[in-house]
Amino acid sequence: MKTNITFLSLGPGDPELLTLKAVRMLREADIVMLPVTESGDGTVHSRAADIIAEWCSADKMRYYTLPMQQNREAVMHVYEDMCSSAAEWYRSGLSVIVAVEGDVSIYASIHYVLERLQKLSIPVEQCPGIPSFIAAAASAGLSLISQGQRLVVLPGDIEAGALRQLLTSRHVVVVMKLSRCQQKLKDYLLQYPDTECHYFENVGTPAHFYSSSHDMILDRKMPYFSLCILKAMP
Question: Is residue 1 a contact partner of residue 96, using CB atoms and an 8 Å limit?
Fold first, then answer.
C-alpha cells in the first residue's frame, strides 16, 4: 500500500457491504482512525470498529471521540487534532486510513479534515462506499427511482411547502439525519396522509428497523442513524 492518507467509506453498517478495495486497504494500512461516540451514561462505542473488526487488527486502531452535538466548535477542535495526528503519521512513512461511516462524499463533516490535509500538500484519497439510503431501499425491496423521476437528498431539514412541491413533481426525496427534523416530518405526514413514507433506522446493523406505516412512524422516536424515503402515492 502506498504511503498516503485514505478516507475510507464503510457503508451503512453491515460488514459484508464493505467493498473488496476497502478490505484490502484495511489489511494493508499501518494506522486506522475510527470515530467513537459517548452515550449519556458515559459508555463509549465505535460502530466503525464493529464494521471492520474482521479485517483490521486492534493494534492498528486509533480512536477519536466526535461530539454528537450542534456546537460545531467542539467538533472542529477534534478535527484539528485528527489532522495533526494523521499528518504526523504520514510524515513518519505510515499509511493512514480515516474510517468514515456511510460514504465520505455524502454529508460527511469529516471532509473538513481531508480538505485541511490537502492544504498541507499531503496526498489524500477517497474510497467510496454504499450510501445508507441505497442499502435501505434494497433492504425493503424498493425501486428507489425509475423512469423520469428525480432523486433529492436532504440533510435533516425539511420545509413542508418545498417538500410538497418536490413530491408532486416526480421527485423522490431522501431525508437523512431525521433526529434533527422528526417533528417536521411527523407534521407533514399528518397534513399529507397520501405521502408514501419508508422509514429506516440503523440500516445494515442488528438494530435495523423498517416501517412504511404512518401510525408506527408517528409513534417512533427517531435516532441519529435514521432516514426516510418519501414518494407521492401512485
Answer: no
The per-residue pLDDT string of the chain (234 residues; one tens digit each, 9 = 90 and over) reads 566 899 999 999 999 999 999 999 999 999 999 998 876 666 778 999 999 999 999 999 999 987 766 667 888 889 999 999 999 999 999 999 999 999 999 988 899 999 999 999 999 999 999 999 999 999 999 999 999 899 999 998 899 999 999 999 999 999 999 999 999 999 999 999 999 999 999 999 999 999 999 999 999 999 989 999 999 987
Instruction: Please give the model's pTM, rounded to 2 decimal places.
Output: 0.89
The closest alpha carbon to 23, from 10, 12, 5, belongs to: 10
Residues 28, 93 share a domain: yes
Three-state DSSP class for 28? helix
Q: How far apart are CA 221 and CA 158, in angstroms?
A: 17
Helix, strand or coil, per DSSP, at residue 14: coil
Domain that holds residue 83: 5-127
Listed residue (186, 181, 162, 193) closest to 224, CA to CA: 181
In which residue are the cell numbers 396522509 written? 193
Domain identity same for 154 and 61: no
Q: Are residues 62 and 138 in the same domain?
A: no
